[in-house]
């Protein structure tokens, strides 16, 4: 016994692997080591020590995780009338602003992430917003962005050489070193074929709400920030919504991994 060092050990703690001789010693070792006695299913095991028993344990652990996730998705709060009313209110308010807001079923990543709210007192949306900088393979998530804030002000903490955070500025140095006139803000057009991905160009001087009017949004807006001087394969529609010259719907656009993730979440 590793607690009293007197009697022959009869038990071994699944958590810390300490040997004990009796219930009294088990309680003492738990108190002394702040041990809960529950086996750590995620503890590291080297390849040399990995056995079929460990494999079975991992398999059962993943099954438990799957059951827990499924139970959470079926929880009454998720399907409660209050939740449904909230989503209906968001869609209805967006429709009043000439925005077609679509929500995904429970379990989708974008549905879980979305923190968009509507303040009835201020009559204003506070959007969940994602910014993607393809040239630096960087992605940032913003919460509670007011709809009357201009896109230029939204981007300042990221690409402005003076106001941006030093760490962010270093990561996005391609953007911060470029003139503001070279920056373009694009948003993917939803409800198109996957082999015909197109983007709308947004006006940085206008508010987020003005830029979202007349567009389809799945859960929350995702903005792609690119530079005119750098090559990219994003096909931008004309201001009148027409196809650009030299591009057809059958033409396939090359996408970065970040964009592919957006498509998978949206489909």
From TrEMBL:
Keywords: Isopeptide bond, Metal-binding, Phosphoprotein, Ribosome biogenesis, Ubl conjugation, Zinc, Zinc-finger. Residues 239-267 are annotated as: Disordered. GO terms for biological process: box C/D snoRNP assembly; maturation of LSU-rRNA from tricistronic rRNA transcript (SSU-rRNA, 5.8S rRNA, LSU-rRNA); snoRNA localization. GO terms for molecular function: zinc ion binding. Pfam families: BCD1, zf-HIT. InterPro entries: BCD1 (IPR051639), BCD1_alpha/beta (IPR057721), Znf_HIT (IPR007529). The keyword Kinase does not apply. One of its GO terms (cellular component) is nucleus. Residues 1-35 form the HIT-type domain. Residues 248-258 have a biased composition (Low complexity). Belongs to the BCD1 family. Required for box C/D snoRNAs accumulation involved in snoRNA processing, snoRNA transport to the nucleolus and ribosome biogenesis. PANTHER family: BOX C_D SNORNA PROTEIN 1, BOX C_D SNORNA PROTEIN 1-RELATED. Interacts with FBL, SNU13, NOP58, NUFIP1, RUVBL1, RUVBL2 and TAF9. Interacts (via HIT-type zinc finger) with the RUVBL1/RUVBL2 complex in the presence of ADP. This is Box C/D snoRNA protein 1. The gene is Znhit6.
């Amino acid at each position: 016994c590793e607690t009293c060092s007197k009697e022959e050990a009869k038990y071994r703690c699944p958590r810390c692997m300490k040997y004990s001789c009796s219930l009294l010693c088990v309680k003492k070792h738990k108190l002394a080591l702040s041990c809960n006695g529950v086996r750590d299913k995620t503890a590291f095991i080297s390849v040399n020590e990995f056995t079929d028993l460990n494999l079975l344990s991992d398999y059962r652990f993943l099954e438990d995780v799957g059951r827990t996730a499924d139970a959470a998705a079926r929880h009454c709060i998720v399907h409660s009338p209050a939740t449904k009313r909230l989503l209906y209110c968001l869609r209805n308010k967006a429709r009043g602003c000439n925005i077609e807001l679509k929500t995904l079923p429970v379990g989708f990543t974008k549905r879980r992430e979305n923190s968009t709210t509507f303040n009835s007192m201020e009559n204003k949306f506070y959007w969940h917003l994602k910014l993607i900088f393809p040239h630096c393979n960087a992605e940032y998530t913003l919460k509670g962005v007011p709809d009357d804030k201009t896109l230029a002000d939204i981007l300042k903490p990221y690409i402005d050489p003076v106001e941006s955070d030093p760490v962010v500025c270093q990561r996005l140095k391609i953007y911060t070193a470029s003139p503001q006139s070279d920056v373009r803000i694009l948003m993917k057009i939803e409800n198109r074929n996957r082999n015909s991905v197109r983007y709308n160009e947004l006006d940085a001087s206008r508010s987020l709400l003005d830029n979202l009017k007349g567009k389809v949004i799945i859960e929350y807006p995702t903005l792609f920030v690119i530079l005119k001087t750098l090559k990219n394969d994003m096909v931008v529609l004309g201001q009148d919504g027409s196809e650009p010259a030299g591009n057809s719907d059958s033409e396939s656009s090359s996408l970065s991994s970040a964009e592919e993730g957006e498509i998978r979440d949206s489909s």
